[in-house]
């Protein structure tokens, strides 16, 4: 045996390794037999282990079959441009050309890989990595800065000073949100410019914290100090997304409408199911009849006439619901299977949407509702599974 690799192979395959170094020495031996040179750290480890083997005529002066491999052990996190991520010869979407990225570079280490993967799993499309590379890229934004530096700031990485500055600013905002976050802090609109304050006061003149909390998404308020009331109002304002399903066994239609009034959520767009228009319109009309006049309601659909029986067309005529749609309109009825063009041509906008079943509406109606309103109430004993998925990111 001439080379250190020969002694390693003999030790691993003939004598047999019985201590804690067995797995790593077997791995290094396999690597050497494939023709891959040792690194300086692998060489030092193998030399130490072989020197401790009784009966092995190993002096420690044996040469290696190949020169030692040089390993770039640099560990850094810095800001780079998009062309540094994909390379100058790679085609990528033009809108990414102005993006800034965070480059994370380190030599292979299983624990570090696991830490990085825990961050990457939370960043989805904002993470890029070429297989086999030691370089990982995250789009530069508050989320990725916070996630990465939370994990790596104390792990001996060389970190761009600008990133550290951003991170410290983010942490300061997290620790002292009252100094930064737009909201209604202790009965005062805070961290908002004059135009935003005026807009909010126009929408909620009395600055009632319950109403502000209910409309926080459309008003751009991230924090509101308020006590959540019980009952249907509390259920509505604590919804996690625009769509909320309310079981009729829990709250009646009258209670829901009472809640909409308390939250000043009129005008209302009512979605009725095809083939059940008359029954649903009758229920909603009767629930509102003591508070909204017939002339403040509009039905923007009709059904095929059947002269032999009373239908929704007769109901619309009898209740005088064929009015003009204008700023005085409080309730608009449409069918779920068709979006009236008039809704797109006027300035009338609903403050809430009401439907009596979780039956799925036409795509155009769904898109209009999602884009125009942040409160959609479904009064059904079991909400639509499709809608729960469809509205999940609102």
Q: Which ranges are low-confidence, i.e. pLDDT below 50, for 5 or more consecutive residues? A: 389-394
- Fraction of residues in H or I helices: 25-40%
> In DSSP terms, counting alpha (H) and pi (I) runs of 4 or more, how many helices?
17
Please outline the major beta sheet: 6 strands, parallel
Can you give a write-up of this model?
This protein is an alpha/beta fold. The protein has 4 domains: 1-70; 76-175; 179-224, no CATH class; 231-390, Rossmann fold (3-Layer(aba) Sandwich). It contains 17 helices and 14 strands. It has helices at 4-15, 22-33, 40-51, 82-86, 110-120, 142-152, 161-175, 194-203, 209-214, 216-219, 231-237, 253-262, 277-288, 312-318, 342-345, 363-372, 385-390, and strands at residues 76-81, 100-105, 127-129, 135-139, 158-159, 183-184, 189-190, 223-224, 243-245, 268-272, 297-299, 331-335, 352-355, 376-378. The chain has a 6-stranded parallel beta sheet with strand order 9-14-13-10-12-11, with helices on one face. A hairpin with a 4-residue loop joins β6 (183-184) and β7. α1 packs across α2 (22-33) and α6 (142-152) crosses α7. The longest helix is centred in the middle third of the chain and has 15 residues, at 161-175.
Summarize the structure.
Helix 1 packs across helix 2 (22-33). This protein has helices at residues 4-15, 22-33, 40-51, 82-86, 110-120, 142-152, 161-175, 194-203, 209-214, 216-219, 231-237, 253-262, 277-288, 312-318, 342-345, 363-372, 385-390; strands at residues 76-81, 100-105, 127-129, 135-139, 158-159, 183-184, 189-190, 223-224, 243-245, 268-272, 297-299, 331-335, 352-355, 376-378.
């Amino acid at each position: 045996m001439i080379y250190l690799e020969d002694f390693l192979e003999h030790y691993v395959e003939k004598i047999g390794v019985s201590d804690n170094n067995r797995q790593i020495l077997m791995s290094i031996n396999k690597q050497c037999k494939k023709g891959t040179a040792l690194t300086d750290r692998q060489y030092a480890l193998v030399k130490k282990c072989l020197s401790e083997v009784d009966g092995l005529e190993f002096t420690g002066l044996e040469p290696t079959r190949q020169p030692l491999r040089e390993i770039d052990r640099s560990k850094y996190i810095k800001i780079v441009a998009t062309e540094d991520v994909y390379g100058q010869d790679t085609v990528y979407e033009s809108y990414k050309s102005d993006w800034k990225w965070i480059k994370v570079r380190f030599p292979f280490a299983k624990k570090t890989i696991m830490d990085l993967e825990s961050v990457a799993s939370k960043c989805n499309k904002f993470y890029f990595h070429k297989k086999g590379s030691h370089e990982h890229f995250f789009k530069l934004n508050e989320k990725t800065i916070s996630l990465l530096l939370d994990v790596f700031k104390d792990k001996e990485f060389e970190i761009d000073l600008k990133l550290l500055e951003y991170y410290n600013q983010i942490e300061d905002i997290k620790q002292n949100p009252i100094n930064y976050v737009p909201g209604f802090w202790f009965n005062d609109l805070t961290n908002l410019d004059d135009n935003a304050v005026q807009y909010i006061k126009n929408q909620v003149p009395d600055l009632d914290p319950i109403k502000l909390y209910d409309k926080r998404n459309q008003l751009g308020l991230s924090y509101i100090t308020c006590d959540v009331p019980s009952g249907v109002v509390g259920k509505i304002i604590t919804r996690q997304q625009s769509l909320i399903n309310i079981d009729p066994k829990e709250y009646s239609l009258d209670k829901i409408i009472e809640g909409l009034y308390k939250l000043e959520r009129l005008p209302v767009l009512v979605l009725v199911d095809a083939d059940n228009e008359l029954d649903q319109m009758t229920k909603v009309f009767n629930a509102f009849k003591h508070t909204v006049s017939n002339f403040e309601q509009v039905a923007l659909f009709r059904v095929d006439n059947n002269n032999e029986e009373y239908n929704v067309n007769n109901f619309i005529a009898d209740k005088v619901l064929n009015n003009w749609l204008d700023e005085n309109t409080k309730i608009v009825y449409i069918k779920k299977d068709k979006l009236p063009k008039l809704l797109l041509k006027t300035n009338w906008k609903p403050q809430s949407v009401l439907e009596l079943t979780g039956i799925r509406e036409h795509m155009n109606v769904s898109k209009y509702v999602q884009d125009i309103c942040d409160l959609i109430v479904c009064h059904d004993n079991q909400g639509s599974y499709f809608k729960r998925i469809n509205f999940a990111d609102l």
